[in-house]
Amino acid sequence: MNILVRLKRVLLPSVVDPMAYSSSAGKKQRLKDYASFRRFVSLVSITCLAVFLLVFLLRMNSSSNFGVPFSDEFDEVLPRSYNRSLISRRLNLPKQNDLSIELEKRNQMPPRNLDLYPSLAKDHITVVLYVHNRPQYLKVVVNSISQVIGINETLLIVSHDGYFEEMNKIIEGIRFCQVKQIFAPFSPHVFPSGFPGVSPADCKEKDNAAEKHCKGTPDQYGNHRSPKIVSLKHHWWWMMNTVWDGLSETKEHNGHILFIEEDHFLYPNAYQNLKILTELKPKKCPHCYAANLAPCDVNARGEGWDSLIAERMGNVGYAFNRTIWRKIHKKTSKFCYFDDYNWDITMWATVYPSFGNAVFTLRGPRTSAVHFGKCGLHQGQEGEKACVDNGVLNFHVEDADKVANINPDWEVRVFENQPGYKAGFKGWGGWGDKRDHQLCLNFAQMYHL
Q1: Which of 44, 108, 181, 325 is most buried by its number of CB atoms within 10 A?
Q2: Region for residue 48 given its phi and psi (left: phi exceeds 0; alpha: psi -120 to 50; beta: otherwise)
Q3: What is the tens place of the pLDDT at every residue in 151-186?
Q4: Which of 315, 276, 284, 318 shows the shortest CA–CA distance to 150?
């Protein structure tokens, strides 16, 4: 008996050896056993194939889902102590949706372009650009910033009022300096179906809450809140608290920080002039609270005198230090309860006057920043009533605007009793809802728990 036959007997005892049997019954048994063996092999093969396919599909499904939740991208770089829900629980902030949580995580990311600009100048002035959703303006501003001399030595922080993909892409394309993006996680634009966005049960316009059984407290003129309008003041206040007290990159920064908006065009000498102004301010104008790149009158371009100017603080290209921020922060209640949706009018009409003395800012006689926007943030970008402006500019940047043009030896001329919003102005309204007041107060507390 050869080796093959022996192996068959050991491994397959049910298979009959054809050399051992010659009878008809033996042949039938042999065929029957062989058929059973084939069915067994087929069943095993099918089972193995099914298991293999199941495992393969599970692995493919797992692999395809691995990159979907983009929060996983940030978990590896967040500090171990970071707890995104801790502040929300302590302050009873609005319940966050998925987008709000993701934006809050993004705020913990380090600046980009560290490979290109690994360090900042020791005496750098951080630049904060706050934006909403006017991409046609943002492109112009980013291009102007890219031409600013010295911008590569500092950090640019871009604060977004919500998340808009086109705005995000523009900022992600910046390569001329370190840049960090932060997104307001409690922006009304992030909450499409609940406060601080639009809630189904909210009162609208001049609704009577008792008659309509709706939620909300009206402003001094009887109007209920409009989320896209209150977002202006919320964003500015959240940004200020976050930049000064919440970001690892700036919470220990005691020097000046420059704030500009998405429709503020910067001249190439803006950063150089600002550094000169902040150095001169303690000596030339110790009572000045800030430094400005432009006159408080947004339509003015400067006097062209051989002197520095001290005037009321403007809202285009303004810079102040931590000492001034602390004074502002102490006036949280005045800021949060004043019935005006504009942050700047709120500051002029109630916060600055509460300091006791006139609030002056120091600037040069020739502007280094220009407000060019025709479309206000409150006008929006959607629907038939959208404000349309392609952002095309015809600014002529003269040679004098390409280099520092402030003489440290100049004297200071003081402008007093200028026109504008002052103490006693009762506000334009739009900020009467108690929920907005509380959210504003919470923003001032969220980094001091």
Answers
A1: 181
A2: alpha
A3: 999 999 999 999 999 999 999 999 999 999 999 999
A4: 276
